Amino acid sequence: MNVTTPINLTQAEAGLVDRFDAARTGLAGSDAVAALRAEAAGQIKAKGLPHRRVEEYKYSDLRAFLKSAAPLAAAVTTDEAKAALAAAETLGGLDRYRIVIANGSYVADLSDIEALSAEGVSVTDFNAALAGTNGAALLAQPKSAGADGVLALNTAFVQGGVVLSVKAGAEVSKPVELVQIAVSEGAQVTRCRVELGEGAKLRLVETFAGKAGAGETNAVFDYDVADKAQLAATRLLTSEGAGAVLATTLSRIGADAELKTLGFIAGPDFTRNQQFVAFTGENSEAKIYGVTLARGKALADQTLIVDHAVPHCNSREFFKTVLDDDARGVYQGRINVAQHAQKTDGEMMTQALLLSEGAEMANKPELEIFADDVICAHGATCGEIDDDLLFYLRARGIPLDEAKTLLVLAFLSEAIEEFGEEDVTEALEQRVRDWLAAK
Amino acid sequence: MLEIKNLHARIAEDGSEILRGIDLTVKPGEIHAIMGPNGSGKSTLSYILAGKEDYEITEGEILFNGENLLEMEPDERAAAGVFLAFQYPIEIPGVATMEFLKTAINAQRKARGEDALSIPDFMKLVKAKSADLNVTMDMLKRPLNVGFSGGEKKRAEILQMALLEPKLCVLDETDSGLDIDALRIVSEGVNKLRSPERSMIVITHYQRLLDHIVPDVVHVLSKGKIVKTGGKELALELEKNGYADYVGEAA
């Protein structure tokens, strides 16, 4: 085999290579960061975008989806960002702090930095950190992610973001919304680091708004949850648009800590929400939820790898998917249990509800267990709305569409309620209702 | 109220004929009991009245207050006043009982052109009616029928009936799975709903229920046809002699 044979780049891949050459001098970071960026761009040039023959992307062929490389979104003024935000609905009247990223760059003037500072939360520009001596460390990625193509795209092009640090012991009283708004068309590439000090507590809501046009949204969230800390993060991938929406979570969980996440997908044509979760301390818990809605020809992919690298940790993975028309859903979940990670308790379930003949779900739950004293379970179901349930509701006078809405909501609510973040329950359920009503 | 004329029906999936020419007229205020052995078509008749799609009507018609019932969707029938108390009330995880009741009441009101009930009015109504049926707040907070005992499910069905105030109540073996006390509570609930404007069809295997809910007319259904019609004393006779006499007649 000749591994050096260059591949034939697609139009989008060639465009990405050109985009990098044009943008590289303007992208933030130290020399070490620049080298990492060049290496990542080199990976795209050598291997192309992830495609169906790459195991992790078997069901979500990004190369086939991405027809061309849109330019990176241009920088915007605070006023432009403000106007775009005012027009965007993200979380309604929820009482929260806000941190704003517009066209890939942090907008301090629109963020509640003073109020957050009073709560023990510091927010700094990711680009400033990238330029610092430890800049390259901010782009580190876990082993389990391998040479992930979406991460490489992010590393090459990341335009900005924030480093959000919650000091030890601080319990932030209100949820923090990290909103990323596409003010104008173009690719939006961001990376945010969220650090919780020992015993800190934070409720984070990650939202995306605006119109990125054909540009891809590539957002990485890097969570560092110290011992005894608790992070609950809700991610809403609900922007409407033709561009790919790619979100990646990298998280490390210390001892006696808790990470809870819910990834909500409804809207984009191509979405991948991938999470790499690693336990680094004992007696910790990760609860990972997913709620996915897709119709038309959309593809929605929820992928995760949970690494039980240490003993005595619990993880729960619970994913719900509703598909209509010719939409395709993907769930790939893997629990790895290292040889010495005894007393691991892992419970993974993925359930899909298909509303049409043309919808298709790929469910791939996996367990890889090297320890001998663990409890691990996985399950997958795929079905239609139960006619008997529907008839019962209709026999009580509830019209067909309303009855379907009730049942779909009931199906998804199991995950939303188990996630149990009351701040966002109503917003999530409303988005499900809106999605169903938009048919 | 209800006129069933020469109703023939079969199971859509396999074509097996279940109803073979039912004629039944129920006048306002009347209670009709339908008795008969297993497999005689009792439950099928109740499902067809409520609009379940698994059956194909091959002949005959059903008029409900002069309207062609068979052309109406299940929810339209409910809004028009048809209520089926299910033999096996179904569990619906994730749908809170209260939310379901409110949605059902207001959907029917909307279909009839009435205003939605306000939340306080709705709560007041539910509290009053559930007390009669010994339905606790705890039950109402749970998902619909989930984890309810057999008796609780049947009481919840009758609560729905009391709240929706239908014109025609079809009770499909409401007595099955009930102990003596639960039977009494359910029957009292049903009797409270008796009125000159409301008709009922009570489907049962046993005379026992008819001691509590006293019918005006008793029919014997066998092999998809009504083979005998009489007064409430017919139920007593059946209890004593069984269905053997009538099953033979229909064959």
Features:
heterodimer, A: 439 residues, ten-stranded mixed beta sheet, globular, B: 251 residues, alpha/beta, Rossmann fold, six-stranded mixed beta sheet, four-stranded antiparallel beta sheet, 12 strands, 28% strand, nucleotide-binding (chain B), Fe-S cluster assembly ATPase SufC (chain B), ATP-binding (chain B), P-loop_NTPase (chain B), ABC_transporter-like_CS (chain B)
Please characterize this protein's 3D structure.
Chain A: Residues 23-177 form the SUF system FeS cluster assembly SufBD N-terminal domain. Chain A: InterPro entries: Fe-S_cluster_assembly_SufBD (IPR055346), SUF_FeS_clus_asmbl_SufBD_core (IPR000825), SUF_FeS_clus_asmbl_SufBD_sf (IPR037284), SUF_FeS_clus_asmbl_SufD (IPR011542), SufBD_N (IPR045595). Chain A is α/β, with parallel strands linked by helices. Chain A has helices spanning 11-23, 31-47, 62-65, 78-87, 113-118, 126-131, 149-157, 387-395, 400-419, 422-437, and strands at 97-102, 105-107, 121-125, 162-166, 176-182, 188-196, 201-210, 217-225, 230-237, 244-253, 258-266, 270-279, 285-294, 299-308, 314-323, 328-337, 345-354, 360-369, 375-383. Chain A contains 10 helices and 19 strands. In chain A, helix 8 (387-395) packs across helix 9. Chain A starts with 10 loop residues before the first helix and ends with a helix. Chain B has 10 helices and 12 strands. Chain B has helices at residues 42-50, 74-80, 97-111, 119-132, 137-141, 150-164, 180-192, 207-212, 233-241, 244-250, and strands at residues 2-11, 17-26, 31-35, 55-64, 67-68, 82-85, 92-96, 143-144, 168-172, 199-203, 217-222, 225-230. Chain B is globular and about 55 Å long. The model of chain B has no long low-confidence stretch (mean pLDDT 92).
The separation of the N and C termini of chain B measures 31 Å
**Helical/strand content category of chain B:** alpha/beta
Task: Return Rg of chain A in Å.
Answer: 21 Å
Beta-strand content estimate of chain B: 25-35%
As a percent range, the share of helical residues of chain A equals: 25-40%
Largest interface: A-B, 22 and 29 residues
Q: How much helix is in the residues of chain B? A: 25-40%
Low-confidence stretches of chain A: none
Number of helices of chain B: 10
Mean pLDDT level of chain A = 95
Count of helical regions of chain A: 10
Protein name (chain A): Fe-S cluster assembly protein SufD
Family (chain A): Belongs to the iron-sulfur cluster assembly SufBD family.
Domain SUF system FeS cluster assembly SufBD core (chain A): 184-411
InterPro entries (chain A): Fe-S_cluster_assembly_SufBD, SUF_FeS_clus_asmbl_SufBD_core, SUF_FeS_clus_asmbl_SufBD_sf, SUF_FeS_clus_asmbl_SufD, SufBD_N
